[in-house]
């Protein structure tokens, strides 16, 4: 008797860990049941993926969906829809800019309730680490957070206080015991604060003044400081959205001597330069700021060498009115969770020949492995049937109307992409197809296997 599957995707080119290959993929009970050429068997649903590449579906390790509490900026509904439209099947939501911030079990449970109801794709949560919640780390761990996030400098949200050195040392020692990683936004607090105050006092508020107030050394200094604490405590450390090649170098050196540290970067540090930010204006303001062309070239080298563990979106939207005003004063944060995969296919694969399997690792497999999410992140038998079907040749100019964000803004509107996501499948169910969200919210809570 022939096998009966839920779904067979035929004739696609699969982006597997070992490389691309033409094969069929069969799904049973939300998981990949078989991979092979011209699979026998029947299925309730068959997709002809001829001419399409099948990626494992992104897990975005770093988003701010602001739900609950700041839903005028973004919601779990809009954010998770945008992610799905960009080939995403899962995300890890940050402990800020929702309100209240995720600093204890009660507030985490409030967020969980929203996600259970509204999330189109799977989700994990970051807990926050601030001077105020050192006693709440265990209860957050018990609720299944995938890790903790802290800021070395002012976070932009007053109630999410920066991590002073005492909190870093004590907090990392606690997290080492819990077996959960700490991700740090690394910018030196004193230098950024004083340079910003000086610029404001002198009425220097342009884009270039902003760059000058957050120079590369603020990141570089703080990366090495955090590495020292990680080395001392044994805590697993992840440098958030690294923007400088020198910072990556420090991470690589520390790893070589056995420190458990790695780094994440964001599409915009690879795709945009300081000159682009000057041209685009506040829509492209983020912190740390987007750096020079020279730095970017070195960052690509680091990405190609495997020195960067994963690429996320740091999707950090706001009410667009908060972007109106002098550059130095407006909200820092870029809306980006819909464009990571198409952006990397365009800039890393087509322009720079990074193999597609490396893109799959940077956006999916590595993230799930680092955070110990079982059964997710690659095209292999037994793994979740998560797929992004991509037409690698399809060229398009990104239009604001294409965006599923609550506010249809992006620094990439008007830019040319090559590689369009046609369909996104989460655990065997199509959630996005041909420009439309086609599923109810079916996301599940992802917890680390620690
Ligand atoms: N609070 C917040 O989202 N901050 C983010 N925005 C940004 O540009 N960098 C960040 O860390
Ligand atoms: Zn940050
Ligand atoms: Zn962030």
From TrEMBL:
Post-translational modifications reported in the UniProt record: Carboxylation allows a single lysine to coordinate two zinc ions.
Residue intervals of the Amidohydrolase-related domain? 53-431
Q: What is its EC number?
A: 3.5.2.5
Cofactor(s), names only, from the UniProt record: Zn(2+)
List the GO molecular function terms. Answer: allantoinase activity; cobalt ion binding; zinc ion binding
- Role this protein plays: Catalyzes the conversion of allantoin (5-ureidohydantoin) to allantoic acid by hydrolytic cleavage of the five-member hydantoin ring.
* Full protein name: Allantoinase
What organism is this sequence from?
A: Desulfosporosinus orientis (strain ATCC 19365 / DSM 765 / NCIMB 8382 / VKM B-1628 / Singapore I)
Mind giving the lineage of the organism this protein is from? Answer: Bacteria, Bacillati, Bacillota, Clostridia, Eubacteriales
């Amino acid at each position: 008797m022939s096998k009966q599957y839920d779904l067979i995707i035929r004739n696609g080119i699969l982006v597997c860990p070992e490389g691309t290959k033409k094969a069929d993929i069969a799904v049973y009970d939300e998981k990949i049941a078989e991979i092979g050429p011209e699979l026998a068997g029947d299925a309730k649903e068959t997709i002809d993926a001829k001419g399409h590449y099948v990626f494992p579906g992104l897990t975005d390790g770093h988003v701010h969906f602001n739900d609950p509490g700041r839903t005028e900026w973004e919601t779990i509904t809009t954010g998770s829809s945008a992610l799905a439209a960009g080939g995403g099947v899962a995300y890890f939501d940050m402990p800020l800019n929702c309100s209240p911030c995720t600093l204890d079990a009660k507030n985490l449970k409030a967020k969980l309730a929203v996600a259970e109801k509204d999330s189109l794709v799977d989700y994990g949560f970051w807990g926050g680490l601030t001077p105020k919640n050192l006693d709440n780390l265990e209860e957050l761990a018990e609720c299944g957070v995938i890790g903790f996030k802290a800021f070395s400098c002012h976070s932009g949200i007053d109630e999410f206080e920066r991590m002073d050195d005492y909190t870093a040392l004590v907090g990392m020692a606690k997290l080492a015991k819990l077996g959960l990683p700490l991700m740090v936004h690394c910018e030196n607090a004193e230098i950024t604060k004083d340079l910003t105050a000086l610029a404001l006092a002198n009425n220097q508020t342009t884009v270039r003044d902003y760059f000058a107030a957050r120079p590369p050394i603020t990141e570089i200094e703080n990366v090495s400081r955090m590495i020292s604490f990680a080395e001392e405590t044994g805590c697993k450390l992840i440098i958030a959205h690294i923007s400088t090649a020198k910072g990556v170098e420090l991470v690589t050196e520390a790893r070589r001597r056995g420190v458990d540290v790695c780094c994440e970067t964001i599409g915009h540090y690879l795709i945009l330069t300081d000159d682009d930010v000057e041209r685009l204006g506040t829509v492209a303001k983020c912190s740390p700021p987007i750096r020079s062309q020279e730095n970017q070239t070195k960052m690509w080298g680091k990405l190609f060498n495997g020195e960067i563990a994963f690429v996320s979106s740091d999707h950090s939207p706001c009410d667009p009115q908060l972007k109106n005003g002098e550059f130095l004063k407006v909200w820092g944060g870029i809306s980006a969770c819909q464009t990571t995969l198409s952006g990397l296919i365009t800039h890393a694969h087509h322009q720079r020949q990074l193999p597609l399997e490396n893109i799959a690792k940077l956006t999916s497999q590595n993230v799930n492995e680092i955070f110990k999410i079982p059964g997710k992140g690659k095209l292999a038998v037994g793994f979740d049937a998560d797929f992004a079907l991509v037409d690698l040749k399809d060229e398009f100019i990104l239009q604001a109307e294409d965006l599923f964000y609550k506010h249809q803004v992006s620094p990439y509107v008007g830019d040319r992409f090559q590689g369009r996501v046609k369909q996104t499948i989460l655990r065997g169910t199509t959630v996005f197809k041909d420009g439309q969200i086609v599923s109810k919210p079916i996301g599940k809570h992802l917890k680390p296997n620690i």
